Amino acid sequence: MTLVEFLQKHGIDYRLSGQHRHVRGDFVGIDCPRCGPGSGKFHAGVREDLSRAACWRCGGMSPYDLLAEVTGLRWYEVREAVTPRSGPVAGAYSPAKRNLGVVYPKGLEPLSGRYSGYLRGRGFDPDSIASLWGVQATGPVGRLSWRLWIPITLDGRVVSWTTRAIGEGVEPRYVSAAPEQEELNHKELLYGQDLVNQSVVIVEGPCDVWAVGPGAVAILGLMTTPKQIERLGRYPVRAICTDAEPAALRRAERLADVLQQFPGTTDVIELETGSDPAEAEVGEIDEIRRRYLD
């Protein structure tokens, strides 16, 4: 069904462009469930192609998150119910696409040479990393030189990004978008979320996501934020697979305790063959996938 039909079905009051001063262009306006539920001011808007949502007060947000909050449904129930009127297919990604609100580093280029060699040295296929995850190279010049550029998508759109150094001993290994360069704060997101269904394997970084494959998400660091925890709680089957060191396992146990407040199950996986998922043996990763994802 269309966005308007969806709102009508669930009894959500809305306004189209021209019907209220807060609703413009190809947006459909609704009351923001965060700052003005029932206010009749229609501060929040969702584009009819479901490519973007925003509130005049709260700022940008995921259209599926917004519709889930206003209806009480889960985000994936909204995604299954609403058909975008037009525009990009949800989940699709084009490395050449540029999204409003995201500032891309200059000089991005396809993976080749040293970048491809780095990925192969870690057991990854550069072509697969480029096509499935949209990864590019930053080039040899500038503050972000010799890094993998890693887009972070939500509902098929790039909303932020991070980078990973390919040189030995380079610190910091990861440099992410500054607030003025991203549409949504990367620490409110889960890297890899667009390729998750009902079950999720939670890891720390993008390389770990690539090792596990679709169904894994990275928290982009060592600690989780409240928004990330809320996103993780949407999945009924959760498995935490972080680094094998004692401190990381203690963090995993604490995260598992927090996630127990949500319906479903949460397990902590202790790796036997590697220091993290990206270093673990293929057989152990395959077993994790069979148990939780496949």
Notes on the structure:
The chain has 294 residues and is α/β, with parallel strands linked by helices. The chain has three domains: 3-81, no CATH class; 113-186, DNA primase DNAg catalytic core, N-terminal domain; 193-292, 3-Layer(aba) Sandwich (Dna Topoisomerase Vi A Subunit, Chain: A, domain 2). The chain is 27% helix and 18% strand. The chain is built from nine helices and twelve strands. It has a four-stranded antiparallel beta sheet. Strands 5-6-7-8 form a four-stranded antiparallel beta sheet, with no helix packed on it. Helix 8 (246-259) links the parallel strand 11 and strand 12 (265-268). Helix 2 packs across helix 3 (75-81). The two termini are 30 Å apart.
Please describe the structure with a list of short key phrases separated by commas or semicolons:
single chain; about 290 residues; alpha/beta; DNA primase DNAg catalytic core, N-terminal domain; Dna Topoisomerase Vi A Subunit, Chain: A, domain 2; 4-stranded antiparallel sheet; 12 strands; globular
Q: What's the layout of helices and strands?
A:
Elements: H1 3-9, E1 27-30, E2 44-47, E3 53-55, E4 59-61, H2 63-71, H3 75-81, H4 113-121, H5 126-133, E5 136-137, E6 147-154, E7 157-165, E8 174-176, E9 199-203, H6 206-212, E10 216-218, H7 226-232, E11 237-240, H8 246-259, E12 265-268, H9 282-292
Helix pairs in contact: 2-3
